[in-house]
Amino acid sequence: MFFIRCQVVAMVVTTTFFTEPLAAAPFAYISNQLDDSVSIIDAGQGKVVDTISVPGKPAGVAVAPGGDKVYVSTPEAKGFAVLDVRKREVVAKVLVSDGALGIAASSDGKRIYVADWYNDNIDVVDADSLKVIKTIPVGDSPSGLVVSPDNRWLFVANRLSNSVSKIDLKKLTLNKTVQVGTHPFGLTIDARGERIYVANVQSDDVTVLETKRLLPIATVKVNMLPYACALALNDSRLFVTNQDDGSVSVIDTATLKEVALIEVGDKPEGINTHPDDRHVYVANWFDRTVSVIDGKTLKVIDTIKTGRGSRAFGQFFGK
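The structure assignment produced for this chain is given below.
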């Protein structure tokens, strides 16, 4: 009898131990541009648990702040797709432009911002009606987008203008534009909204901007063709994907020096940090994989198979 009781208790404990973390684990939504799909990675299990068909060469990704929807830019479908997280299917397709690339959601969940690569503007979309409510001209070939933590500003990397624009989200007007490195693409902002880090593809460096006045405060050299970047460990480390040499540069944000270079997959592109603020996920285009980096040890601790042309440009982690 004693053995039976212990066995039952052990089974209950084991079930609780394994199911609770997995149920709570966040998901990463990886756009596979060449497969016309989005892979859903369960971060708790460390594997793809579902793949959703998303026609139109999916590229940019933005998870709604509520975690219930994912917006995926689809340039060949001339807009973006809306994915329902619970149903794991496309529930809407929104026409914007065949230049749709970077995409971001406002922190209150009311708006979606889409960078129009061909028409040099930002389309502002109402998240309820899915209608364009405003078009804001910016620089040439806008790509990466990031919203300030207070939902007050939108920052835009203009690749062919070598600049970053700052948009007033109350007035929905352009506030200021500043020159950065050559061909800026991805960018990220710290939790306090004080600094922006911009990956410049052709000058092989990162421009650090002070957000209040939108002024450059530093330029940090990295490796070949930096594409996108993400912060981790309480914003103390910046991770930058280098497309041309299959690596991620690690920058100490206090000293603004490169402190490590991590080998990942072939042609790393999109990068985002797990909500635990420690693990960094990197989409590798040619390898059809996602590399998982431990931000403390600076080691790749896992490699997850995804799909062809894994790009995942933007904020691809959900809750």
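Interim note for the steering committee: The domain at 29-137 is CATH 2.130.10.10 (Methylamine Dehydrogenase; Chain H). Confidence is low (pLDDT under 50) at residues 1-23.
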